[in-house]
Amino acid sequence: MASDTLNIVIGGEAGQGLVTVGQLLAKSLVRSGYSILVTQDYQSRIRGGHNSFAIRTAIQNVLAPGEAIDLLVALDADSVEIHGDQMPPDGVAVADAAFGVHVQRCLQVPFKQLSPARYSNVAALGIVGSLLGLDEGLVACLTGEAFGRAGAQVAEENRRALSAGYNWAGAQEVPLPKLPHVSAVPERLMMDGSDGIALGAVSAGLKFYSFYPMTPSTPIALNLAAWSDQMGLVVEQAEDEIAAINMAIGASFAGAPSMVGTSGGGFALMVEGVSLAGMTETPIVIAVGQRPAPATGLPTRTEQADLEFVLHAGHGEFPRAILAPGTVEECFHLTRHAFDLAQRFQGPVFILTDQFLADSYRAVEPFDLGDLQAVDPARQEALPPPPYRRHAITESGVSPRLLPGRSEHLVVTDSDEHTEDGHITEDLSTRRQMVEKRLRKLEGLRQEVIPPDYQGDSRADILLVSWGSTKGSALEAASKLRKRGERVATLHFSQVWPLVPEQFTKHLEGARRVACVEGNASGQFARLIRRETGFDISEHVHRYDGLPITPEYILRHLSLQGLKEDEAWQMHKKR
Questions:
Q1: What local confidence, expressed as pLDDT, does residue 572 receive?
Q2: Total-model pTM
Q3: Which of 110, 123, 328, 382 is the most exposed place for a label (fewest CB within 10 A)?
């Protein structure tokens, strides 16, 4: 191993069961006390193509994906050719002897002798479990849970294949150090970003979720559908995204905390509904899982290129908030926060994630649910006196909200401009008052903004600005630079709108070099910071090939830009 972490990559074709094996291995590592971070790289097809399931693991918390592969498990011959150049000299490959692959430090496995072809992936799991030093009983238990419903014969065949893999690998001399033993195994869950969003929504009081399937947001719906009976949820797969958002607005208007999930292409169809929520002042949470675009783009890859789209989506002017979680824990807590903001300020609130975070499993400490409160749209301190005015003009811009049929009051709203009591109007003075009333809610949202997280040296030589899923990679890159003697800091935004310059401008102005790390080509967040603060971030680390940003990627690009920066700095000092 090149460091104190181990990077394991399982490669193969879609349909070979590599995700099943990867999930079992990842869960075995978590149950054994190790931290993990999973990166899934898959093509948009049912069978064939090249897919990979990467697990970076260590005793300490793993913050980001890695590039160098310490252990490659090749379920097909192409995986060795594709990933061979990512393996350091001390890396080890595991491949079927029948592939005829001849590379250094490759275990040639006689899979045909170990198990029937149908169970070869489980035999590979046994080999990897043995190489890492994982307890066979624990891995067997998890494998039994995964395949238990397939019948006794299938379960027995899987058990035999797993045991055969363990026995074969145990008899080999392999120059791969086993993972250090964890004596006190902490209680942790294996969750990805989609799990975190779904759990956060349920804990916040979600009652209605509508969607049209679109990668990478679909797992949110699948989680919620699986829990719907137990948790009293309605999960509706609509005929399209237009119907999905309008269903959610209707359910929310009636009093059910509601949410929709989609990706950029689906969100394009929802935009008119976003504007409807803004005009009718109806709470709604919208989860947008970003992927490369335009059009269908790369359906199963990752990107951060929809920030400006989400920020400006919907015709007209009305307030919104955009949250961008960077960890699974933030997916949970920020989703809860999104429901709270939507209910209190009566409008759309966005959760902006991406394929990398949505599909990235992590080892997560169980959430403390003791003091968590769910939103209650029906809660009122006191009923307003009649006549009830749904859109009453207030100093805060937030009007008293009653639910239809829950009181003696008539609740009226309209998608056209309306009077305080909700009826359509074309009175121009009323129009102006209503626009100003709705926009006043933005000041309340500003008061609730989550400050960006600053970590590291004050007045740093290098400040890495990040948002959303790039958090871990920026933190690890900063740690590596610090070990080289650099004065480094990170400034991470988990809320990207509204921005409150007073919270962070001093950090930007106090650093010698500022670089913005984001997964798009044009520097959308850096541009937003310049618009709101006037500060121009001169260095950029952009990635838009569909792969997640790694610490190594950041360091390479900083080095290239740093050569020019250092030359300019030396010239400045000579003056």
A1: 40
A2: 0.94
A3: 382
